[in-house]
Design brief:
Layout: E1 13-14, E2 18-26, E3 30-37, E4 42-49, H1 51-54, H2 57-71, E5 81-86, E6 91-95, E7 100-102, H3 103-110, H4 115-134, E8 147-150, E9 155-157, H5 162-169, H6 184-187, H7 194-210, H8 220-229, H9 244-253, H10 265-278, H11 281-284, E10 307-308, E11 313-314, H12 381-396, H13 407-433, E12 439-441, H14 450-459, E13 465-470, E14 480-484, E15 490-492, E16 497-502, E17 507-509, H15 518-527, E18 531-538, E19 548-552, E20 558-560, E21 564-570, E22 576-577, H16 586-595, E23 599-602, E24 607-608, E25 617-621, E26 626-627, E27 632-640, E28 643-645, H17 654-663, E29 667-672, E30 681-685, E31 690-692, E32 696-701
Parallel strand pairs: 13-16, 18-21, 23-27, 24-27, 29-32
Antiparallel strand pairs: 1-2, 2-3, 3-4, 4-6, 5-6, 7-8, 8-9, 10-11, 12-15, 14-16, 17-20, 19-21, 22-26, 25-27, 28-31, 30-32
EC number: 2.7.11.1
GO molecular function, one term: ATP binding
Region (Disordered): 346-403
């Protein structure tokens, strides 16, 4: 507690209803006070938002809608929102509060827990999340600090609604939530849903089993990146005694891809209870620090309350409002004839001391005796009509029987007959009113264990029961789905009541579609009551285009209907561009083709080329486009230029010499001596012999 002078709100009354008693904690978004609801005379946790949020009209509007949604959620494992309001200078939320501690306190005090302890704590947390997800609410900040545990063992999850309002009202790009528990999709800014809460719960499960978080770093952004990129470590790496199914459960809850996690809290809750039922006592008690006694959370009922805040939780005192049971009326029927002739005994005041009740017992209360001389009670219309009809019938009945020969014997027979009929009528009355033939209402035993359901039915008088197994998507395996006849039906107690026991959801086996064409794979998955997930493509040198290369999940695993199976489809062999090879030496061309996965084929015939030297590639086929790995390219190799005889043109005119040399494929170079006045070739180089086609012949002209 803090001195009242430290905070001007202490001692003030909010909305003329909430008397602020003391300051509990101060967080990044709000200040939490212990306050008293003057109207209902109970202590509550009053969370007053900081002024920068209280004056944001857009945020206040969203907060109002989210608070209404969260307030509509009533569940034993969710902290209840009682009220919210907006004043000129403040906005506030009113919560129940709990006498206890947080899950963070449990982890810091006890360290690693056994699977039994961890699952016992996680079960009510997930049950609260399941109720929220079913109501369309996503928490987005699931962490041990937001899980509250009373000293009586009740577990509740708090701070619903506020996180959603904050994330929808800010555009700063800041990650909302605790980085140690943030889901990868939230870290990437892609938005989250119920599966984001499942991821955070998976991180909490890892921490419960090992005593520490899976990703730790001095810089928060490093933790965020680990959630996005790094593989989730197995808890058994730190606690080797843990059963393998706990590693699988943590991995399942913390898959990077949300599609591979449980769809929501309800789906996860079924899996948790199935896993817990499948573990042996030795496996349930494996691992753990075992330094303190096990915590025993309660899974249903009401609880005390804990005040909580964004940053931490402070324990407050629990309210004391005992519940009193009102006495029952001893009158059995609302319209019992002559009921006004009996005076009801007043119950003793001592029967309700300390909030206890003493119900009146029908048929055992003391009533004043009814005198034979007492005047008859006035009859209603129905009773008067029946009496008149009886009188008319009696008047029409003869008083004597003519011709009776044995009146005494006949009288005895009539007496015996009346006695037998009376006994039969009494027996039938007992049978139909109080015995096995009495009508009773079939009780609602849904979501109860088989033992509990049969006990409730026997208590209601239904001794003849049978069981049958049914598949159900919502009720966990081993628990009751419904009865036949259904709850609320009127039924004679001797009739049979069939109890329908859940076998859990129907699971379908993933077929093997690897190596199947894409259309065939889709049909196989649809026929198996599954769905096609993400389709990706990849080149493959051996598998033809359009055929499935891989699938995830693998064949043989079992999942619920419409679970998505991701497929990788082959694009066929990867195309390889044919490199440019003309002009390269034969060795270089072969090496270039080999480096890209192609094969060089040398043409047996070589050709002359004026431009490509001998031993180099003159042509390639194909010389462009693409081939697949192992494709062949034919190379034609050059023999170099063709050798041509050079005529002797010395003493001949330069024009004739030039024409003939060019016709033979030579290049001609003319050099004039003394101006080349006569046009006669004086010198020639080369003169005679052979020269390569396309080489230059020099003519000196005078």
């Amino acid at each position: 507690m803090q001195d009242a002078s430290a905070d001007p709100r202490i001692g003030s009354t909010i909305e003329n209803r909430y008397l602020v008693l003391s300051k509990v904690a101060n967080g990044g978004m709000s200040t939490v006070y212990l306050a008293k609801d003057l109207r209902l005379n109970r202590n509550i946790a009053l969370k007053i938002l900081h002024p920068h949020l209280a004056t944001d009209n857009a945020f206040i509007g969203r907060l109002s809608r989210e608070a209404q949604s969260a307030a509509s959620l009533s569940h034993p494992h969710v902290v209840q929102i009682h009220d919210h309001g907006v004043g000129p200078e403040y906005a506030y939320l009113v919560f129940e509060f709990i006498d206890g501690y947080t899950l963070r306190d449990v982890i810091e005090r006890q360290g690693a827990l056994t699977p039994r302890q961890a699952l016992d704590l996680l079960d009510p947390i997930v049950a609260g999340l399941a109720a929220a997800h079913g109501a369309g609410l996503v928490h987005r900040d699931v962490k041990p600090e937001n899980v509250l545990i009373s000293h009586q063992g009740w577990v509740k999850i708090g701070d619903f609604g506020l996180s959603r309002a904050i994330t929808t009202s800010t555009n700063t790009g800041t990650l909302f939530g605790t980085v140690a528990y943030i889901a990868p999709e939230l870290a990437r800014g892609e938005g989250g849903d119920a599966r984001s809460d499942i991821y955070s719960a998976g991180i909490m499960l890892y921490e419960l089993l090992t005593g520490h978080q899976p990703f730790r770093a001095t810089v928060p952004v490093a933790v965020v990146m680990a959630h996005v990129q790094d593989e989730m470590p197995a808890p058994s790496a730190d606690v080797p005694a843990l059963p393998p199914v706990m590693d699988e459960l943590v991995r399942y809850m913390t898959e990077k891809d949300p599609d591979h996690r449980p769809a929501n809290g309800a789906a996860l809750l079924e899996d948790l209870r199935h896993i817990r039922a499948s573990l042996t006592p030795a496996e349930l008690d494996a691992g753990g620090s075992a330094t303190l006694p096990a915590i025993e959370p309660r899974l249903s009922g009401t609880s005390h309350t804990v005040a909580f805040d964004q940053s931490h939780t402070t324990v407050l005192a629990a309210p004391q409002f005992p519940t009193s049971v009102l006495p029952r009326s001893p009158q059995l029927y609302a319209e019992a004839p002559h009921s006004d002739r009996y005076a009801l005994a007043e119950p003793s005041s001592s029967a309700y001391d300390a909030g206890q009740s003493q119900p009146a017992h029908i048929g055992t209360s003391s009533y004043p005796p009814v005198s034979d001389d007492a005047p008859a009670a006035p009859l209603n219309k129905r009773q008067a009509a029946a009496a008149n009809k009886a009188k008319a019938k009696a008047a029409a009945t003869p008083k004597k029987t003519l011709g009776s020969r044995h009146p005494r014997r006949r009288a005895v027979l009539w007496v015996l007959l009346v006695l037998v009929l009376g006994i039969l009528a009494a027996g039938a009355g007992w049978f139909l009113a109080l015995g096995p033939g009495a009508l009773a209402t079939v009780p609602d035993v849904g979501n109860k264990s088989v033992e509990q359901a049969l006990s409730v039915l026997r208590t209601e008088g239904f001794e003849s029961t049978s069981t049958t197994d049914v598949y159900d998507e919502k009720v966990a395996a081993g628990f009751v789905v419904d009865t036949d006849p259904t709850a609320g039906s009127s039924l004679r107690k001797f009739n049979n009541v069939t109890v329908q026991i859940s076998r859990g959801p129907v699971l379908y086996q993933v077929p093997n579609v690897t190596g199947v064409a894409q259309d065939g794979a889709k049909k196989a998955l649809t026929d198996a009551q599954l769905a096609v997930g993400t389709l990706t493509e990849a080149f493959d040198e051996k598998v033809a285009a359009g055929v499935v290369l891989k699938q995830d999940p693998a064949a043989g695993k079992e999942f619920r209907a419409n679970t998505k199976v991701n497929l990788v489809i082959s694009k066929g062999p990867k195309p390889i561009p044919v490199p440019a090879l003309t002009g390269k030496t034969q060795a270089d061309a072969q090496a270039a083709l080999k480096s890209v996965g192609l094969v060089a084929v040398i043409s047996p015939e070589q050709v002359n080329s004026r431009l490509v030297p001998a031993g180099s590639v003159v042509a390639a086929s194909p010389d462009s486009g693409t081939l697949t790995a192992g494709g062949k390219v034919t190379l034609t190799i050059s023999k170099g230029p063709k050798m041509v005889s050079v005529p002797d043109f010395v003493g001949k005119q330069v024009g004739v010499a030039t024409s003939e040399l060019e016709a033979l494929g030579f290049e001609v170079k003319v050099e004039n001596l003394l101006g080349g006045f006569f046009g006669t070739v004086r010198f020639q180089d080369p003169q005679g012999g052979e020269a390569p086609e396309g080489s230059t012949v020099t003519l000196r002209v005078i």
